[in-house]
């Protein structure tokens, strides 16, 4: 306060001195100067007003929660967290992250090496609320509007002359998948949590590009058929060229899972036709059925240590796991388990898994605090786990759930596999797509199980069945679908998929 008091006195003194020098209405100018000085000093001395948070309806206390009464459109849920996951897929630099930013206002490219190279490497998440004006005279698609996740529930319509109110219809989480071919495994782990997809195709390049084909194949494997196709960068094209490109998109999707999908011309950079995307999301993507009564099962996609360097011991916080809940509801205070946990080898060289146990301290969806979390969006789960175990994505690929209620941990799996006929994105010297060779005994391939990417050695093979020894143990269920990739020309390339039919389980260590 002393510093502020000094400034306060100096202000009055200097202002009143200048008043005396003028010799005109000295008394009045002194008073005016003093008033000015007091006002300016008060402005400087007063603490900054706290930033007002938009009003969001409160959530039911966990102890009073009846999960059977919840749905993905329950007002107290969609006001705070996303309940639908939409992946943005397509070739590198076709504008996936730009589209997400145009809809949600959130930049998903957050890591230094991503910003330098202008590509997405890690799965980026951004939430957006989609509203519709309740005034019947508001024309489509301009009556649809999207905002950030922390926007209030019923804001006024922003169209000039409209007295309507925006009504919240959807709360969507965009999973921004990397388009770079080397990063296909990241994209496949994103496909595991997608309910629908936006397929980006840049209008200023020929269609299809290598990763466009590969991503479409990946979502076919995941049985994802709710797709909206965005013909991006139309601002860089003439009308005739745009029509020809549109025809090439129709030819590309014919006979695929995206065959009947709507195609919307957009410019993500100029935010042209973003309202049409919002319209399509609400009217063509159904709300996915969710099972809230099952035991919660969350796959971890990110994990981090939130403590700043130099923090005092009493200020330290536990590690945070970020992921997508596939089914069930997580609540504050729940006792949780993370599998497979800490993986080591004993004196004989056998694998040993020690699950991590903790309690949920906080739940967040972007900047919104939650008392309970349901499937949809990226949920941050604050725990009491040693933060060093969570630092730099060390928990990625793990599964989080209630203590003692998670699936088994497998070190070997038996699968029925299906190989693609042609290798996506790879061409031979004569310009034809390369064929996929059969699996060979003792070959090492990559397997994507949920958000886990692990090496696997083919130990036995018979027709379309194989036995795989996993490099890292995985927590999974019988019947789970997995993606198979092979190393070709220094890149991991998608070669097919498989269903888990049996396996060798590891008994988790108790200490």
From TrEMBL:
Quote the catalytic activity from the record.
GTP + H2O = GDP + phosphate + H(+)
Pfam entry (one): eIF2_C
> Locations of Basic and acidic residues compositional bias?
24-38
Q: Where is the composition biased (Low complexity)?
A: 45-54
For the keyword Protease, the answer is no
One term of GO molecular function: GTP binding
UniProt cross-references to InterPro entries, sorted A to Z = EFTu-like_2, eIF2G, eIF2g_C, eIF2g_dom_2, eIF2g_GTP-bd, P-loop_NTPase, T_Tr_GTP-bd_dom, Transl_B-barrel_sf
Q: What protein name does the entry list?
A: Eukaryotic translation initiation factor 2 subunit gamma
List the keywords (alphabetical).
Answer: GTP-binding, Hydrolase, Initiation factor, Nucleotide-binding, Protein biosynthesis
Region annotated Disordered sits at 1-67
Indicate yes or no for the key word Nucleus: no
Task: Write the Enzyme Commission number(s) for this entry.
Answer: 3.6.5.3
